[in-house]
Amino acid sequence: MKRRNILKSLIAATMLAGSFCLPALAAVEVAGVKFDDSIKVAGSELKLNGAGVRTKVIFKVYAAGLYLTEKKSSVADVLATSGPRRVAITMLREVSSEDFGKAFMDGLNNNTDKNERTRILPQTMKFGEVFAQIPGLKKGDQLTLDWTPGEGTQCYLNGKKIGELMPDVAFYNAVLRIWLGEHPVDSDLKPALLGGK
């Protein structure tokens, strides 16, 4: 009798402990921002590849997460992924659209060669126009960059579409290299997005 009660207690305790662990598996928290472990984009389930914080000098600028159809640990594998992809950014401080646009262009220019910059110039200009339309990004704003095969890159601000679709995957990969290229905007964020600590 006692043995049965002990066994029941152990099972109950295990189930209770398991239920407390579930939320930890469902999301990753970075600088107070929660990134779901999996999301849906264009009807496909994407997994959180990695997440981290973009820091400039000593200031935390934003938290970013990279979602892919399956986890990848190398830049080449991330760029070669054929399915949908998402970069999710949550602002941790206010940034003017001018400053964000400049940082974007600097990151793009530092991680692409002249020929590639020429090839994606029309899409880069369209993307720049998106930021010219908004006064800036506030703390808590969520910026999402989705790649959907057969469609293109779509940008969202707080869930609303901004700007036009940009059809070339080369553009999306150039954007990814802002964080994952040879000269990333933040050397600590790159390994975090690639699933490192």
Structure description:
This protein has 197 residues and is α+β, with helices and mostly antiparallel strands. The chain has one domain (28-193): Chalcone isomerase, CATH 3.50.70.10. Helix content is 41%, strand content 34%. It is built from seven helices and eleven strands. It has helices spanning 2-26, 75-80, 97-110, 114-119, 121-132, 169-180, 189-193; strands spanning 27-30, 33-36, 38-41, 44-56, 59-68, 85-91, 95-96, 136-137, 142-148, 152-157, 160-166. It has a seven-stranded antiparallel β-sheet. It has a two-stranded antiparallel ribbon with strand order 1-2. Strands 7-8 form a two-stranded antiparallel ribbon. The longest helix is centred in the N-terminal third of the chain and has 25 residues, at 2-26. Keywords: Lipoprotein, Membrane, Signal, Transmembrane. This is Lipoprotein transmembrane. Residues 1-26 form the signal peptide. GO terms for molecular function: intramolecular lyase activity. Pfam families: Chalcone_3 (PF16036).
